[in-house]
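Supplementary Methods. Inverse-folding protocol.

Structures were first reduced to a discrete structure-token string of length 129. This string, shown here, constituted the complete conditioning input.
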């Protein structure tokens, strides 16, 4: 499980007896060596990691799409540039979270997007037998 506290992302092995993470109505609580810590679940958006579990690339903030480097159906590699978002006078490059195929593309150059808007979805590459 990936959790975040004070801007730091931690990988937690919930099988270790000294480490436990529990989702609660108030967020995430973590225990390490007998101490309790509040965390929030970590969901990377628009980063090199993308939204790992679903392959959905979300807009990290409101902005304008200024470039789209892929098309639906394209094969992509982990870290490959998918699109560029201009927000707060900065350019934000959104990349593929893993090797796969562009299953959905909901972005076009010049489009205004809101925070958490789904811009693309990557389907993982099939493992070879």
């Amino acid at each position: 499980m990936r959790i975040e506290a004070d801007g730091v992302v931690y990988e937690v092995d919930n099988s270790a007896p000294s480490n436990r993470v529990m989702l609660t109505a108030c967020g995430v609580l973590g225990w390490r060596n007998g101490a309790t810590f509040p965390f929030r679940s970590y969901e990377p958006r628009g980063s090199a990691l993308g939204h790992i579990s679903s392959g959905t690339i979300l807009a990290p903030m409101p902005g304008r799409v200024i470039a789209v480097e892929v098309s639906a159906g394209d094969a992509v590699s982990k870290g490959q540039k998918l699109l560029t978002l201009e927000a707060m006078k900065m350019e934000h490059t959104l990349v593929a979270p893993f090797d796969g195929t562009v299953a959905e593309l909901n972005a076009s150059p010049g489009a205004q997007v809101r925070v958490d808007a789904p811009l693309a979805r990557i389907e993982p590459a099939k493992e070879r037998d």
